[in-house]
Amino acid sequence: MNLDSPIQSISRLTPTYQKRLLKLGIKNLRDIFYHFPFRYEDFSKIKPIGELKLNETATIQGQITEIKNIKTWKKRMYITEAYIQDKTGVIKAIWFNQPYLTDTLKTGQTVSLSGKISFDKTLCLSNPAYEKMQKHGQLCHTGRLVAVYPETKGISSRWLRYIIKMLLPKFLSQIKDYLPLEIKKSQGLLDLSRAIEQIHFPKTIKHSEAARKRLVFDELFLIQLFVLQQKMKWRKNIAPNISFDQTLIKNFVESFPFKLTDAQRRSAWEILQDLDKSKPMNRLLEGDVGSGKTVVAAIAMLQATKAGWQAALMAPTEILAQQHFRELTKILINLDLSIGLLTGTETMAFSASEFKTTKKEDLLKDISTGKIQIVVGTHALIQKTVNFKKLALVVVDEQHRFGVAQRAALQKNIKKIEDGLTQTIPHLLSMTATPIPRTLALTIYGDLDISLLDELPKGRQEIITKIVAPIQRQQAYEFIRRQIKEGRQVFVICPRIEVSDKLQTENNNEPHLMINDNRSWDDVKAVKEEYEKLHKIIFPDLRINMLHGKLKSKEKEKTMLDFKNGKTDILVSTSVVEVGVDVPNATVIMIEGADRFGLAQLHQFRGRVGRGTHQSYCFLFSESSAKNTNARLKAIINCKNGFELAEKDLEIRGPGHFYGNQQWGLPDLSMASLADVALVKNVRQEAQKLITKDPELTAYPMLCEKIRQFQKDIHLE
Ligand code: ADP
Ligand code: MG
Fold first, then answer.
1. What phi and psi, each to the nearest 5 degrees, are found at residue 205?
2. What digits encode the pLDDT tens for the residues 133-192?
3. Whose CA is nearest to atom 16 of ligand 1?
4. Domain 240-453: what homologous superfamily?
5. Measured in whole angstroms, how far is the alpha carbon of residue 55 from the centre of its chain?
6. CA of 583 to the centre of ligand 1 (A)
7. Which of 582, 583, 603, 608 most suits a substitution to test ligand 1, by most atoms within 8 Å of the C-beta?
8. Family per UniProt (predicted)?
9. What is the pLDDT of residues 442-476, one digit of tens each?
């Protein structure tokens, strides 16, 4: 057996346990050792029984003088009661509902018990951790720092400690240290096997911290090496060299009803220069909500298509794809271009100033012959069935919806285009309104060049943001009514409702630390309830409609269009309106359960209003009175800048919660360390140094193997 052996080969594991381990993402032996604790219980204080004090956490060691099960009829519960004696005294210990304990612990045995000292007529230990003391054996669950792991039903921390303690000595020598010696030295890092041992069974907190430092370094380092290599690989490709046509772009920009901001000009210039090279661009256009990313993308797409190539624009949702399609056809109306819309459920084409619903096959054919020059769509665009004739530019909107894995998949799926003798690959432009904290920009987005739209178009008004207390709800409704009377429109956003789940209720572990988060959420239900309430009780006379992800694409589009065209007063919606949706006449956005959303997400919602000339408002409703929540909601009132908010969110809630329940596809340790800018920078430097010295890492075969394995672990393969 070796570290890669699947858990099925561990003879002592029953299939039931194997299944449970799989639930925790543990597939092989290595995974077991890499299942790290998230905290430690400090049971290291060993005390004589006679010196125990109420409420202290301590370990006692002594002999069992009596142990028995008592059945309490009233509560239908078993209580196991034991008396333990050392030279200084006797103490009672009780356990609830673990009658099988009397099979393990027997009178006369010497045991070690850890827990909090409580009071039941006399001092006692209630539900203490326990283990038998062996002559030369080391303690595992008591009398020391004890690891607490992410658990799942039927896999307790105690069981994990037991299994790790049993397996670790046999396989520790197989854990090969792939980190170059000079890096270990200069960074003051432990050997890998030592770190693994110490993270599970540390002697002191210092030891556990040293172990953690090494393991965090590894995760971040591997991500860095991966993105840097990815960047190198990408740049080895050949891309169409699209020369800058000054007259074309100048005329186009002058046709806008507004002046470009300096930031838009600069970003467009950076992009056009990238296109003018035969190395493929991989650039992120990052700009706050409303900073005007679409026109910048349109400039690039116009340049590409007028040079005889095709361009594609991908959006994360159908609504956004539809909106982009309409907007592009508007902006580009006088430029004689054919533009197609291709989503999972809808296909349309626009050419010679006319919209036409087309069959999917026909659109696909027109894309493959190059007749359609710009294609707007959802993910469906990068599916294998879509063949472009001469694709030179791919624009991905709202990039934060696409994690590391998706991005790598996108790059892999982009097909090379045979053009006579050369094979080319399109330029890639990603756009996001989600401000990325520096550490993320350096890790997950470390392979991208970045253009920043750090300036909003002139004359944008400030949106008045208020936290609404439950007693002010009525007032808020009256305010909304007045706004609608004046002809304005209103968004109401509902958070998702948690649907109770067996696993959740049976396991009283801190839920956010469970790896296998099996909670399911129902946003449709929340929207329907809110819609009923507003429609039947609060505003029976107003025109109210609802929008959620379960609607058919056609219905979604109609709902959005009706709202855009002023046929609806209030739109009740899930977070599907979060990104990009543009309705200038909407002046109020009311967010229910605001505490359930991330700051960056709330900021996105707020960006749905204030897009026209009218003063706009954002009302935050929250049921939670937790201090943290208030700090967060206050942050959004005081801070109008998405970048600052992002850093703040990271600070207050930690990276796990960043952007709501988004998954980044990163391991836990590195997620936790993303708040540390200095650390991330330092690791990036080390990775950069190594890659510069040895781009293919040929001198470091073990490291290469580890990167490959790491890619597999975060599903990049
Ligand atoms: P986002 O960056 O959030 O995607 P959009 O591209 O949707 O922003 O632009 C928001 C609105 O601002 C659009 O209606 C667009 O026409 C308008 N806009 C873009 N650039 C400017 C500008 N320089 N001055 C005024 N309005 C602009
Ligand atoms: Mg946008």
1. -60, -40
2. 988 888 999 999 999 998 888 899 999 999 999 999 999 999 999 999 999 999 999 999
3. 292
4. P-loop containing nucleotide triphosphate hydrolases (3.40.50.300)
5. 39
6. 12
7. 582
8. Belongs to the helicase family. RecG subfamily.
9. 777 788 888 989 888 887 778 999 999 888 899 99
